[in-house]
């Protein structure tokens, strides 16, 4: 027969299970925050990369690339910074079609632009524009200022 000291009581087991539940409850939300922070870091990196190449194109052509109706990243930028279709590009001039790797001087006729990530991360849209060239956040899809 078992002695009384050889087994755990129901109260002791409930306390251990409760402590484990509390610890799991503290870890899971932090894991989601870590994933969100990682997503933000990748988005900011890609936006800065696109911004750097956009500035290089302005140096070569004197103006920024025009946007297209679909708001897709222009081919000429995508060649330098391959990003997925969630990144969008809007400028103050519009071309009917993308460059198809054949840019001409009239494909670069914009003085203002916004590059943004079209999915909310942490309830915010991330974007970069020609005004101060740093990544910013907005609750609404960013638009060009007039």
Question: What features would you highlight for this structure?
Answer:
146 residues; four-stranded antiparallel beta sheet; alpha+beta; 2 helices
Task: Give a description of the structure.
The chain contains 2 helices and 6 strands, in the order αβαβββββ. The protein has about 150 residues and is α+β, with helices and mostly antiparallel strands. The mean pLDDT is about 85. It has one domain (about 35-140). It has helices at about 10-60, 75-80, and strands at about 65-70, 85-90, 95, 115, 125-130, 135-140.
Low-confidence stretches: none
Tally of distinct domains: 1
User: How many helix segments?
Assistant: 2
N-to-C SSE string, H for helix and E for strand: HEHEEEEE
Q: What separation lies between the terminal Cα atoms?
A: 86 Å
Radius of gyration: 25 Å
Shape: rod-shaped
Computed structural class: alpha+beta
* Major beta sheet summary: 4 strands, antiparallel
Helix-residue proportion: 25-40%
How much of the polypeptide forms β-strand, as a percent range? 15-25%
Number of strands: 6
């Amino acid at each position: 027969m078992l002695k009384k000291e050889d087994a755990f009581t129901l109260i002791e087991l409930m306390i251990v299970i409760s402590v484990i539940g509390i610890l799991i409850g503290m870890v899971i939300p932090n894991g989601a925050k870590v994933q969100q922070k990682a997503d933000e870091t990748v988005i900011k990196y890609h936006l800065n990369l696109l911004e750097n190449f956009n500035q290089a194109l302005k140096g070569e052509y004197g103006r920024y690339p025009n946007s297209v109706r679909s708001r897709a990243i222009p081919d000429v930028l995508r060649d330098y910074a391959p990003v997925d279709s969630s990144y969008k590009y809007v400028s103050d001039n519009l071309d009917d079609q993308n460059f198809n790797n054949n840019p001409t001087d009239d494909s670069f006729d914009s003085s203002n632009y916004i590059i943004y990530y079209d999915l909310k991360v942490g309830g915010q849209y991330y974007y970069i524009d020609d005004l101060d060239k740093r990544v910013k956040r907005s609750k609404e899809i960013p638009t060009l200022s007039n």
